[in-house]
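Researcher: I'm preparing a figure for a lab meeting and need a structural model of a single chain. I don't have an experimental structure, so a prediction will have to do for now. The sequence is pasted below. Please return the structure as tokens so I can convert it later.
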Amino acid sequence: MGLTTVTSIPFNRTYLAGAEAAYMHQAMTSGPLAGDGPFTKRAHRLLNEVVGSQAALLTTSCTHALEMSAFLLDLQPGDEVVLPSFTFCSTANAYAIRGAVPVFVDCRPDTLNIDERLVEAAITERTKAIVVVHYAGVGCEMDAITEIADRHGLAVIEDNAHGLGGTYRGRSLGALGAMATQSFHETKNVQCGEGGALLFNDVRYFSRAEIVREKGTNRSQFFRGMVDKYRWIDIGSSYLPSELLAAYLTAQLESFPTIQAQRHAVWSAYHAELAEWARDNGVTQPHLPADREHPAHLYYLLLPDLNNRQGLLGHLRERGIHATFHYQPLHSAPAGEKYGRTAPGGCPVTDDVADRLIRLPLFAGMTADELHRVIDAVRAYEVL
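Model: Understood. Here is the structure written out token by token.
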């Protein structure tokens, strides 16, 4: 008798909305592919509609969108930017690369967002901005953070890589800071393999942003007929994605409601079906404040300790299920210690949750069988 082969369940699987190939073919056969063509403009319009932002510029990654924000803030060596330690390294890299000092603040133990109660103690006369990360697409305490920023004359930048489709007190994430960055990496709700965007709620940054994004030239103004030739105007880099990526992304953005419905179904099933197991085993599920809506970007569990986190990861791996941990603290990373500083009080919550957090597979197109295999496998794990 032959062995039964069990198909593995990936952490993420690319979801095709349906029009990607047709749109990319249209881009290939209808004109230049260098970017800022018809599909880029459609993607800009769709993003502004989803978020309610004033303007948008596609970029080649969320990292590059963050780097653009650092250009636009005119950061100088020694300036400081307050941001969470519990985030991806790009959030800090973008400012450190300009010579600014990332100042790492601890996260809240409930939402895992930057702890707004610790932000003011991290501010000095060199501080230029506060960067927030809406972890898992659950909004930070933006009213408190905005009030602190206004009082100190600081810009607020949203790293909204997780947050497209989320809201804070009725307002869309990505529409709450002077600028916001988006990620369209293949693991995000809508994606084009690699891609990003910089969104503008303070349009004073927009004109210069077009120049920074186009290698420091006024090429965008040239193509709009505003100047008779384009020239080197400012410092900048090459942050403009091709029309092929914009075409792919447009198909995804047009299907955003469908994608979201499927992801929310998976997220809600995890949350409901694992509630009793979590309660009985001392496992913490995501915390959702009543005044916020999340976009079902990721589903995490906080195990009681590192041994159990590793135990559950191994338990799932043996059953063909690819789960994973998440961010490792930036404040104690080699580059974090070299280029940044830690806010007063350290980051003990970040250190704790980084050791205990596990993310479960979550993607649009996940089958009912796959979903229930994950749920059953988690329930079968006995916390030590």
